[in-house]
Protein 1
Amino acid sequence: MTTDPGKGGLDENDDRGSVAQTGAGTVIESRDLDVFYGETQALQNIDLAIPENQVTAMIGPSGCGKSTFLRCINRMNDLIDIARVEGSLTFKGKNVYDTDVDPVALRRRIGMVFQHPNPFPKSIYDNVAYGLRIQDKTENMDEVVERSLKKAALWDEVSDRLDDSALDLSGGQQQRLCIARAIAVDPEVILMDEPASALDPIATSQIEDLIEELATEYTVVIVTHNMQQAARISDKTAVFLTGGELVEFDDTDKIFENPESQRVEDYITGKFG
Ligand SMILES: Nc1ncnc2c1ncn2[C@@H]1O[C@H](COP(=O)(O)OP(=O)(O)OP(=O)(O)O)[C@@H](O)[C@H]1O
């Protein structure tokens, strides 16, 4: 049986957390999370508590499992045949891997933005309206499209050409359009997998400003290769190292100024990675 948990359908007051975390309430929490691709283990015993309405950055060298962790949160790993997840990963206290969780409904609440902008070959308007139409939420659609484009800091650039093809936008505009598309269906969490790595410095800076703004309303989890970017925009930083180990998770300032682990210090200061 699959059910749509719907907003408020999960325990919103889950406070079991003894996993390292301070301040804002925990919205996503992993315990003893292991992920395998066939025989290869990509993540080992990950305990992590992600706070609500903040930006949490995942950093670490290539192949350390950052994207794997991100994809666990909204079960995108389900789409990889050989991926296997053990342990628990809860969203508002509910294990997203329980058999009664519908991954499609989960992904409505936990949206995702990818490394390369991937607008549909449709108009700007239809890209943003896409999820609303699928969910049959077509009431006030013009308003929702406008609001989403405004929240994604794109409205001023496209308001007079909503019927133009999304593919005619610049890379940075396309990425903001993808963010607008994700926002339109009113998610609670936005996962971003290196959302600015394919963009030029100006577009990157616009996306960074936008991410900080989005965190006033949404929980944002971002994978980035760019340590300066993590330092600039995130509240919390998780450092994964080779072998799929979460070595340190703390306030971003602490991670960059005074990390507990020598391995993290070596990584941050560029001694390896
Ligand atoms: N679809 C897959 N099939 C098999 N192995 C995979 C798959 N995806 C990832 N892996 C392996 O899992 C490990 C973690 O990969 P992942 O992409 O999560 O790391 P990452 O830290 O995000 O890397 P990068 O920074 O290079 O994107 C790597 O060893 C990778 O080769």
Protein 2
Amino acid sequence: MTRDGMGDGSFAIEAVGLRKHFGDVVAVESLDLTIEAGTVYGFLGPNGSGKTTTMRMLTTLTRPTAGEAWIAGVPVTDRAGVIEHVGYLPEEPPLFDELTAREYLRHVAALHDIPGSAADERIEGYLDRFDLDDAADRRIDGFSTGMRKKTGLVGAILHEPTVIFLDEPTSGLDPRAARTVKDLIAEFSEGETTIFLSTHILSVVDELADEVGVLHDGRLVAEGSPSDLKRRAEAGAGETLEDVFLAVTADHAEEYATTERGAAADGA
Ligand SMILES: Nc1ncnc2c1ncn2[C@@H]1O[C@H](COP(=O)(O)OP(=O)(O)OP(=O)(O)O)[C@@H](O)[C@H]1O
């Protein structure tokens, strides 16, 4: 795909022909994305379909094998430039276990050059909002999965990034914390902040996403608003986002298997 002005910053996230392979394993293939600022983009796909690899390429943590991508017009090859714009919550956030939550968050703030008083104000606000204030001065190695996730999320958004990548942000959270995360995503997206959200919890995507992309075997096999996708699925597959997900991933698997079989037969 080519278009005029590629990577000119008119999209919050843009990718063209993005590909990543690990040896013989093709994790992501020919991925094109154009996501406008202020969008909540739900990124769905079965286990192993390439979602994490995509997010790692878009946040500069993994170098693409081929293709190009930009965050707010900054190429992902410019790590320092991209990091300023993005926040990333991996599925299992890497935290410094020997620090307390408050120390960790102050450390993150310092990495982003957030002045001390502004950092402390933001940290206090988020610790309170996520019910972490009582645990703030305890070492992270004693934290539960949910507490680690909440601490990681605060660390990812502390520098007020304009594009936020969230990998399973609500999994492992109690209902109250999950509600807080969903409210926060909705608040962010009311402004110009873009959220790229990967989750297997389809109700979260249904509730929050403006646009949905479904990845299967590293390829984008469906894209559209949740209602568009559901309308399309009503013709035969059912009427929920889960029906859509199952249909497009099954169709693609079948098509892929047929092609593979065809190719094998041709070669035989
Ligand atoms: N560092 C790596 N080395 C080798 N193979 C890898 C590596 N990272 C990912 N893969 C492979 O790439 C493919 C895509 O993996 P990825 O983690 O991106 O999927 P995912 O959609 O995030 O899966 P899940 O929903 O289970 O988190 C898988 O086949 C995986 O085994």
Protein 3
Amino acid sequence: MPGAGATWGPAAPPSPGGEGPRILVVFAGLHGSTREIAARLARSLTCSGAGRRIGLTAALVPAQQRPDPAPFDAVVLGSAVYGGRWLAPAVSYLETYAATLARRSTWSFSSGLCSRSSVPPLGVEPSPLMHVSIGPRQHRWFAGRLERRLLSAGERRALEGHPPSVDHRDWQGVHQWADEIAGALKAADVRSRRHDVA
Ligand SMILES: Cc1cc2nc3c(=O)[nH]c(=O)nc-3n(C[C@H](O)[C@H](O)[C@H](O)COP(=O)(O)O)c2cc1C
């Protein structure tokens, strides 16, 4: 699997009439699980049927690097959930770029081990800005992974009594979501980005 920062080109030639949409996948995690979900999502975006049809390209960048979303047509922002919250780099990214994200097609996801029913609507609300810049219907919850050998002593203590290492990630679900996102991207998204950066 390509590392963070990798860029995937279109798996098929761009659609006739010009360059396909460009999507930025930004993620925050501590122990690799969310990075792998984001990487799978980015790859599926370009390889899915819908992604290939429109010649979509995806860039994968950690939130700590604070990639500017302006040159992209759409953004997916995801974070692991710790203590019921998104991680600070994801919250900070959302707050820094809220105005740009509000003018882009933006999706978000949270990943953790609590079941969907035990978290508030929206999964989590990392920031009041989330409703403004993303909107509640474009948020997805993905089950994550816990790998005990990767945890700090403090984290192990915090999880005392929890089951040992588990991996509940739903790769098929990630792929399907990528296909939905690629299917939702329209030529209008490309136009709005070009207008913005002109
Ligand atoms: C100390 C600690 C606290 C956690 N708190 C939550 C939580 O509040 N809600 C949740 O759904 N998952 C929680 N998890 C599970 C992580 O979100 C899950 O393991 C996630 O997949 C980790 O992603 P990462 O490897 O990218 O950091 C916690 C895990 C640890 C180690």
